[in-house]
Amino acid sequence: MTASSHTSRAHSFNAAAAQYAANRPSYPPALFDAIEELSGRTLAGARVADIGAGTGIATALLHARGAEVVAVEPGDGMAEQFRHLHPDLPIVRGDGNDLPLRTDSVDFVTYAQSWHWTDTARAVPEAVRVLRPGGALVLWWNTYALDVPWIAGQVGRVAEHFRDYGANPAAEVNGAPSRSTLADPSGRLEFAHRVVRWSRRVPLDTHLANIGSHSIFLVAGEEHTGVFLTEERRILQEVFPDGTVEETYDVELLVAAA
Q: How far apart are CA 13 and CA 15, in angstroms?
């Protein structure tokens, strides 16, 4: 992916923020249990900065665990949707490459589905700077479980249909490449890794709107994306004749002490 296409895809979510908020999956309670286990500290009462917060899916769940959380979001559309959905939660504008936070000010820096949009050479030192001693950088992604046959088939179809847009067959539906290539290429931080599997059952329309909210779909244009989603609807109606899709996810979790 070129620098310009990376930027275009990162900004593409702003025009689809409402679609993102309505259809993207959440995260299971077991994920937050694992964060506490791997970091060795509880979220309740902790000061947390949720970076690339988007529409606030993760921010709200961290708040529900008792964290004192502030969201950091660079995009106009996503921030507007965040404020609409979570008017009582604080949000500031900024991104992970230049955090608008004081040094030694938070116990956790979290990235849900967003670390791969950063420049890690800048984002790692920034995370370390704002973390208090004993704090943790926490990264996670909902990734589709590729051992489920229909999901593997869909990922392959996405890669084929969007090949001219630089589609990565392992990443476009999942949202992240291999963890080894993006966590911290400098090797400064040592990450503990955990996979948390979960699933949700949603109407076919929700599933299609969910995958359609991923950046490769958003930048490809309505016509090219529409062709794919029409054919995908036909395929999935045969797999799920009752119209309810069971999406299975593996949450890839990485936790590093600062």
A: 6
Q: Supply the Cα-derived Rg of the chain in whole angstroms.
A: 18
Tens-digit pLDDT profile for residues 145-168:
999 999 999 999 999 999 877 655
Does pTM surpass 0.85?
A: yes
Q: Where are the beta strands (DSSP E) in the chain?
A: 47-51, 68-73, 91-93, 106-112, 131-144, 191-203, 244-257
The terminus-to-terminus CA distance of the chain in angstroms comes to 30
Tokens matching residue 221: 């244009």
Indicate the residue type of 246.
E
* Residue 7 scores a pLDDT above 70: no
> What's the confidence (pLDDT) of residue 116?
87
- State the amino acid at position 100 in one-letter form: P
**How wide is the angle at C-alpha 22 spanned by C-alphas 17 and 24, nearest 5°?**
85
Contact 116, 252 (CB under 8 A): no
CB of 99 closer than 8 Å to CB of 72: yes
- Max mean pLDDT among 99-103, 183-187, 218-222 falls in 99-103
DSSP 8-state assignment for residue 240: -
Whole-angstrom distance, CA of residue 173 vs CA of residue 74: 22
Alpha carbons 129 and 25: distance in angstroms, whole number: 31
SS3 content of the chain, % helix, strand, coil (to 5): 45, 25, 30
